[in-house]
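To close the chapter, one final illustration. This time we ask the reader to focus less on the individual chains and more on the assembly as a whole: which components sit near each other, and how the overall shape emerges from the parts.
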Amino acid sequence: MFGRLRNRLLLRWLAARIPGHRRHTLNMQSVFIMPTRFGVYFFVLCAALFILGTNYQNNLLLLLCYFFLSVSLVTIFTSYQNFARLQIQARGVNTVYAGDEASFQIQLSSHSHQPPAGQLTIRWWGHKTGIVVDLDDSTEEVHLPRATFRRGVFALPRVTFSSLYPLGLFRCWTHLDFAQPMMVFPRLEPVGDHHVNFQQSVGKGTTLTSGQEDFDSLRAYRQGDPIARIAWKSLAKGAAPAVKTFSEPANFNTRLQVNPVSQTLEKDISQTAYLVVELTRRQQPFALQIGPHTYAAATGRAHRDKCLRALSTIGTQV
Amino acid sequence: MKGTGLPVKGHRATLILSIAMLVLTVVLNQPLMGWVMLMMTCAAVIRFYLFRAGQTQKLSQRLVNLLAVLACIALAWFSGQQGLLEIMVNLLVTGCALKLLVLRRTKDFLQLTACAFFLTGCALIFEQALSTAIVLSIIVLLLLLGLQQLYAPQLAFKKHLSANVKLGLQALPIASLLFLIMPQLPPLWGMPAGKSTQTGLSESMTPGDIAALTQSTDRVFTATFSQALPPPQQRYWRAMVLESFNGNTWTVSEYRKQQQLLSQFTTRTLEAEPQGNWAEYQLIIEPNASKWLYALDVSRPADRASLTKVISNQDYSLSTVQPVMSKQLFDMQYNADAKKPLAANGIDTQLNLQLPVSGKNPRAKDWAQQLRHRYSDNNALVDAIMRYFADQNFSYTLTPGAMPEHPVDTFLFERQAGFCAHYASAMTYVLRETGIPARIVSGYQGGEAITQNALSVYQYDAHAWVEAAPDGKTWERFDPTAMVAMSRLQYGFQQSMADQHADMPLFSRARARDSALLGGLFAMIDTVNYQWSRWVLGFDNERQQDMLTDILGEKTTTKLALFGLAVMLFITGLLALYFIPKPAARYTDEIQRLYDSLSARLHKLTGVERANLSARQYLHLLAPHLDAQTFSLFEQFTQQYEKIRYVPSGQQRNHYARLRSQHRILMKQLKKGMGGFRPSPLTEE
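The assembled structure is written out below.
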């Protein structure tokens, strides 16, 4: 409860401080720096050395103590300087089906003549673990995986970049918002594709309306042909397996329907999405109707993506 | 990040840490026990092996735990021989060695590094010579390098090294400044002192037991005089007074020890106006873990800072409140003419007429009786004893052989050869038998001038002499050894023993006398070490205050506040100097600068930006905007620019010169009434 409130306040403050942008150049505004646990121990060590030096009246011990203090002082600046050389640019997220792992591509570069050094930890906001990138390893593009659970369009959360270079005494970090939407298509749920042919209703809300089923001819079975089209009768007679082909002027007639108020909406959407993918694979034109909206029949990748996008945003405000 | 595992094979950070640990162990050889050092060496060697071969077999946690338990038992077993401090250091090093064996995670690495930092500090307790300080600073840099390597494993080693050195150099001025201005506090509480570090003079002396005296060439202290050095005959450095005798052994009397304990708790005050001729000097005492100070007759603390550290005992010896565990500086003053009266309450007389109850040394006793009958005057009696040493063919030797039974008799009437302890012991005993209060003073005699007004005193200058009160009122110094070895008094131990040190090690300081080169080398090292001790190790509260007074004049709160502010500003300035980016560095490339200035000007005039275009592309892009003359000029310029840039042989002086002149002409052309360009063709149509 308290944690959530804190999280929300923090995010609001961050939104004002580091507004979302596709490309970020780190500066004083966006970089935070604090001692790590090791850094705190280091200060305790300095205190111990000071006490030892004072009690033994040992000037070299005192000098060592002051040297360590100066080193940590200099390190604050060194680590900031190193970290602030980073220039981070979002390259976008690949679109995936819900349940798959999306990958966010980030391009790391430097705006200084001297490249940043050291290991960089990249993780999602609020996550405990992330990936570690070595900046000296000349990796320019980084893929940050993100698990997806639900369909829809999401704003990507902030990404936390942190670095301990050079001595691990201080942690430099920043939370960047790349203002990138992440599209998650519905989960695919296979349905037998005889539905396509025999005009059976899928679930309660989805109806497949097939066009004229004009039987045209038989042709030899090829691997990958749908089982539903196999001419069982001729096969039973001992002939070579054959497939029924239909003359399909179905451009306007294959119509997938989703009822947005159906009780099994998620299941319907998943099954429809499967059909969309399947029909596109077969290069069979289809139309999609979601509630009052209709997407005219067409085929091809663009059409598929348009339909999937429409399916994934059902019931969400876009 | 904290809990992540580290690779084993080829992990440079661990290797660097192991090396640093190994060197650190070698530097710490003084407090460390042999087997602890061996353990660390083993751990480091195993790490080297793992670095090359990788983890072939995992060391079981059980084995390591067993090792740890065994090590703890061994430490406990040997703990009787060592002080608390040494035990702690041994324990820490043992722990580090075991941890190094099982180093697996980042957390382990950080723990080890922190321990190593702390051990570096501990090493400084035991030794503060310049050479040690240099080695330890290298170790610190190594440890920092290891940390860097941990957080940037792929960075080139050269870059690591330069970053490391840069870090050290950047931190050093700030550290020095802090060292100079941070207040030097008095000890907050007492710290454990090491047993084995106690060196130098002992609180008891048994001349008969020492068959051969071994001479150490360690430095004991250095004294810097504000005026001229005292003459060699006056360089008697008193340390402790031995007043209790049991027939064989002289010890510091119990009464004096108790007095010394008591006076720790009394408040000591500085005498407001010293009477007589006091000369100031400054002692830099090497750590010896004892409380006795070495001072000329008659000395006392010269300032308030030293007063808080020094106790003036009733027997005119001086001791410190805390054992001297690290090089320390004391400001003293002495008065060679001051008298040392006996205590009014008669305690001195009582203590110094004490004789052993056992019937030892009967012949010496008889001789004392004879002397007493012959001389009624005490001074004449003392002279007679001194003369006896001179006349009876006594000799000075470092190898007199043991005299366990009746040591004084044996020395006086049989061997007639010995070193200072024998002479002092015999004379004091005889004097006491005749009823003259007498005691042995042990300390150092002599000293080697290392600069015009500084003396260094070494362990081989150890000496013992007699203080007696023939008149029963004031102590006088008698040195019976001087009767047989006058040269020792005048030229110091080294000269007088020239014939005896044939068996000394080749590179010893004693040998250095023979060779001019070696002697010069030793003298130079001495001088450097002396300056190091005086200015770095000896920098204390007093000197800090002096320095501040020198800078600020009279110290007022406002001035101090302003000074503090100035120091803060200075540090800020230093950091700014380190880290504010230098804009000039962007334009080191002259060719680029010429081209950029031109393209910026063209951009301003035509509104066409170069952006990421190549020079040629930009030229074509500009073509419609420029008139023919300017365009051809710019074309030539671009060609020249490309030639220098991309043709390897193009980087010649005349090419540069041509480019520069073309740049000048073009700029003039563009400036000339903005005539170089024509309106955009689009607007023309």
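Chain B is about 50% helix and 10% strand. Chain B touches chain A through 62 residues (CB under 8 Å). With these observations in hand, you are ready for the problems at the end of the chapter.
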